[in-house]
Amino acid sequence: MKEPSDKPEALANEIALAAGSRVGATNERIVAIFDEIADLLDVENANPFRVRAYRNAARSIGALTEDVGAMLARGTDLATLPGIGTDLAGKMREIAETGGSELLTRLRRETPGQIQMLLSLPGLGPRRVHRLEHDLNVHTMEDLAAAAREHRVGMLPGFGPRTEQRLLDAVQARLDRHRRFSLDVAMRAVDPLMAHLRSCGAAQDLAVAGSYRRGRDTVGDLDIAVASGRPQAVIHAFLAYGQTRSVISAGSTRASTVLMNDMQVDLRVVPASSYGAALVYLTGSKAHNVALRKMAQARGLKLNEYGVFRQGRKIAGRDEASIYEALGLPWIAPELREDTGELDAARDGKLPHLVEARDIQGDLHVHTNESDGVDSLEAMVMAAGRDGLQYLAITDHSPRLGITHGLNASRLAAQSDAIDALNAKGGLPTILKGIEVDILEDGSLDLPDAVLGRLDLVVGAIHSHFDLPADKQTARLLRAIDHPHFSILAHPFARLIGEREACRFDAVRVFRALAERGACVEANGQPRRLDVWDTGCRLAKSSGVQVSIASDAHRSADFRNLAWGLTQARRGWLEAADVLNTRSLSRLRAILKKTM
DNA sequence: GCCGTTTTCGGCCCGACTGTTTTCAGTCG
Known about the structure:
GO molecular function: DNA binding; DNA-directed DNA polymerase activity; exonuclease activity; phosphoric ester hydrolase activity; zinc ion binding
Radius of gyration: 26 Å
Distance between the termini: 46 Å
Strand order of the largest sheet: 11-12-13-14-15-16-17
Protein name: DNA-directed DNA polymerase
Largest sheet: 7 strands, parallel
CATH topology of the largest domain: TIM Barrel
Number of helices: 25
EC number: 2.7.7.7
CATH architecture of the largest domain: Alpha-Beta Barrel
Domain DNA-directed DNA polymerase X: 25-338
Helix content: 40-55%
InterPro entries: DNA-dir_DNA_pol_X (IPR002054), DNA_pol_lamdba_lyase_dom_sf (IPR027421), DNA_Pol_thumb_sf (IPR037160), DNA_pol_X_beta-like (IPR002008), HHH_MUS81 (IPR010996), NT_sf (IPR043519), PHP_dom (IPR004013), PHP_phosphatase (IPR050243)
């Protein structure tokens, strides 16, 4: 459940990113400044509740869906926001107007060095950083490494030789370290580990919790909840797992290890009567949990990983639903637990009926070996049928993408004949004729209108010039969307997780254009893409744009990517009605017709 | 520094594990 610092990747911030650093950029800046102020105050031994006030405020601002600059322009009183009083409202205004903060400038002057970097080292918190700064004059990673090598760190009160060595290791490991893992990599680690834990016979119930269960686009570590009356046996089996590289800690109910693939795993064992509470606790997010505990406290209750307690007596804990019920709430799907409005929605009976796997009727982005896919048209259609799909669209690449052996007009015509023949045979999912057409640098499409007009749908995507300035990228996409045959904007941000940054454009304008044209946006389910991801889905919904959850399958096994795309859609609060490919074939055709 | 269906003062989310302390602070999730 380790979060990237303490702040959820907030809707406002990601929309800011998407919009090319205009909409919401103020929020992003305030969050960064407040978090840094909190770190610096913490190291200075300031009142811990003052520190917390800055962290709470940062989290609260991070969850806003509206830009603070816009709110100020409208005359909104920022002190009405949760966790914001007159003082912080003033600092927010200062940041919005000047881009900086006098307090931060002063704190930085008083506490020079890489405080935030030092704090990010495992085992190093504000108290120890304070000690290092004052007693050893350590301000940077280099200072720390030097002091540790000279064994000056281990001499400090509260430190010892083991801490010293761990810090030295941590500084060195920092250089070549993969922080987060894609979901498919995580899944390949999860499945055998869970099978191993089940086989020990001491686990009555177990589940992976944490960001993996919430369906975040990447996973930092694995959190596993286990119900057992024999915790020692479970811990023993866990430590003995064959893929374990090292043991970080091991107690009577809890242990942490690192797997061979460098992924950290945290295991927690509780009695079956507390399993639901442990699952809530380990699933997080941290922000969601903090909010839940505050709700509990407001009702005179206490919530921890063992249950909900009233005056020391347990009133819930066995399953998750009982925990939420004790707090007066319906059960909340893990994908929504980010403290971005789900608790208010739950309290008001306004939680969305999230789209489910069984709602998905087809897949509108599929490749074959005619372009860069591995399997033939027939094999892909058969596989789609086995996976229960009613229809699929074949969308091979267009010619410009030479490396993919993209289809020109005549090869597309030949593929069309093959599709007609397969459709005529019947008994298989209906095949729609499509193309993943390249959106060229100027926003034109890579095939003539006459060719595109003969297809059932046109999926457009950019595969080059990812780093255009935001205004040019926006214009490029707007021109493409305006094309008379344009149906679906595929993987709009063209990001590759951990490899390529999302490209920058004004997402609000682009989505508005999609809505006006009756066109759709794709939630691409390839685990390295996940594009659009949760926040984009939410923006689509608020913009009135339908989302196509797509596998972008390049081989018959890839239809499972639909599940990853579905998870992002659920994290984006989408219901079946918000998703294009939950429609029956006839409804789908009617919707597509509007764009053709 | 924020906040109030017990409160405008006195609270602020909760518990396990480690390394260091010889009774617990610091860190982490």
